[in-house]
């Protein structure tokens, strides 16, 4: 009967030890799960960063293209403006020539068609 308290203490200690081993296994499994989740999150972050870099280069490319298009549009506008100026000059010259010709026609009519 003297052994009964020792056996009882041994069983309690063994149950704590076994429970501790189970707890340790649980903690190891949790650690492994968290490490896997961490690695997955790192991969997701890297993917997002790569997408952001790709978008950044696309934005930069689009910006350069827009700048080129704006420059080309400005050059075309300047060319068209000079053409309009040239055409306005030609129209004025034709209007002046028409007025001069009309006055000659009126003088001719006055002289020969009376």
The share of residues in helices is: over 70%
The overall average pLDDT, rounded, is 80
Alpha-carbon Rg, integer = 48 Å
Q: What is the number of helices?
A: 1
- The stretches of 5 or more residues where confidence is low (pLDDT under 50) are none
Overall spatial form: rod-shaped
Beta-strand residue percentage: under 5%
Q: What structural class do you assign from the helix and strand content?
A: mainly alpha
What's the SSE pattern?
H
Largest sheet: none
CA-CA gap between termini:
161 Å
What is the tally of beta strands? 0
Sum this structure up briefly.
The chain is mostly helical.
Name a few traits of the molecule.
mainly alpha, 1 helix, 114 residues
Structural features, described:
The longest helix has 110 residues, at 3-112. The chain starts with a helix and ends with a helix. The protein has one helix at 3-112. It is mostly helical and 114 residues long. It has one helix and no strands.
């Amino acid at each position: 009967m003297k052994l009964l308290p020792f056996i009882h203490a041994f069983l309690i200690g063994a149950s704590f030890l076994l429970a501790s081993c189970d707890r340790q296994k649980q903690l190891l499994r949790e650690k492994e799960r968290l490490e896997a989740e961490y690695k997955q999150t790192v991969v997701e972050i890297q993917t997002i960063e790569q997408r952001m870099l790709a978008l950044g280069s696309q934005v930069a490319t689009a910006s350069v293209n827009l700048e080129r298009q704006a420059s080309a549009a400005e050059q075309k506008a300047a060319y068209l403006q000079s053409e309009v100026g040239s055409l306005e000059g030609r129209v004025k010259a034709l209007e002046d020539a028409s007025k001069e010709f009309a006055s000659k026609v009126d003088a001719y009519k006055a002289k020969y068609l009376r």
